[in-house]
Amino acid sequence: MALPDAEIRLVVPPGRDMIDLLGQGDHLLKLIEDQFEADICVRGNEITIAGDPQEAQAVSALFTEMLQLVESGETLTPEAIDRSIDMLRRGDISPAKVFTDVILTHRGKTIRPKTAGQKRYVDAIRKNTITFGIGPAGTGKTYLAMAMAVDALKRKEVGRIILTRPAVEAGEKLGYLPGNLFEKVDPYLRPLYDALFDMMDIEKSTALTERGTIEVAPLAFMRGRTLNDSFVVLDEAQNTSPEQMKMFLTRLGFGSKIVVTGDVTQVDLPAGHSGLRQVRDILTDIPDVEFIELASRDVVRHKLVQHIVTAYGAYEEARAAASPGTGGAPSNG
Fold first, then answer.
1. With contact defined as beta carbons under 8 Å apart, do 144 and 237 qualify?
2. Which of 27, 103, 121, 190 gets the most CB atoms within 10 Å of its CB?
3. Which ranges of 40-171 does DSSP label H, i.e. alpha helix?
4. Could you give the 3-state DSSP secondary structure of residue 182?
5. pLDDT value at position 10?
6. What's the CA gap between 145 and 259, in Å, rounded?
7. Residue range 197-231, pLDDT digits in tens
């Protein structure tokens, strides 16, 4: 038997501009009404929610989170509302805890987690010496890791930042490319520089790079070193061989933190033997090491990217299921 309709009344504190909560022209309120089977009535600073008890309770919880965000000084956006609804429906985490976790602010731009998965990732970096962030493009794996590195440097928790990537040759041999060694590998490292310049003035980051406080280098440059008092980010780790991954992880020195990021569905190695795929089986039970899996719902680029990532994932799963004799690997045609 269906439960009787519930009615929940929320009172917004006096002095709070309802536009902050509902949006200009009530555009945020309309977005919420489209997502829930509940009647929402706003009179003055009172919000009345009526309908199915579960739906009414969900809307009430959403408005409570929105109010916390507004009172903490956040500006609500349609994207934030969509993500808040998703988090509450999944029972992941309080959206207010996610959106108010500010990692870094630069020139008025605030860097923070935007999804429950990203919040778990950031918390894991804070808690562990070695963190692996594994997931598809657009989930903020590298960007958030670099923001955490810059913040750690500013707080003097580490003495330097080291950003590295494997220089996988995609169709061209490095030796045949024009320029000296640094000019040859620069295209591989350019995305790291771009992200760094988004978090720090170019002049300052250039000066820190010249002093060696920030180092951006190919993974091969890590061999034979011990990285003390450093925040080290290894990006595109799916393109490391098992031997390179072992070499890199054993560079860890005292007072350092390592974040390894990658997408195991995007391996460019000729033989496909990825150190990132292997390392989880090896280090699963090691303390102070954590693996965080990010998914399509953690993509923070254009919403269409989420659908593209999900569609490719379903396609690869279907191919693997249709080719059981190949151990899940796609056939060659």
1. no
2. 121
3. 53-71, 78-90, 95-99, 116-127, 141-154
4. helix
5. 93
6. 7
7. 889 998 999 899 999 999 988 888 899 999 999 99
Closest CA to 8 of 43, 65, 60: 60
Q: Contact at 8 Å (CB) between 41 and 9?
A: no
Sign of the Cα torsion 209, 159, 99, 313 reads positive
Q: Cα–Cα distance between 103 and 151 in angstroms, integer?
A: 7
Residue pLDDT, tens place only, 276-302: 999 989 998 899 999 999 988 888 766
DSSP bridge partners of 163: 216, 233
Q: Would you call 31 exposed, middle or buried from its count of C-beta atoms within 10 A (0-12, 13-18, 19+)?
A: middle
Residue with tokens 């977005």: 31
pLDDT of res. 189: 76
Dist. CA 298–CA 157, nearest whole Å:
28
Picking from 291, 169, 166, 141, the residue whose alpha carbon sits closest to that of residue 240 is 166
**How far is it, in rounded angstroms, from Cα 18 to Cα 325?**
61
Task: Encode 201-230: b = buried (16+ Cβ within 10 Å), e = exposed.
Answer: eeeebeebeeeeebbbbbbeebeeeebeeb
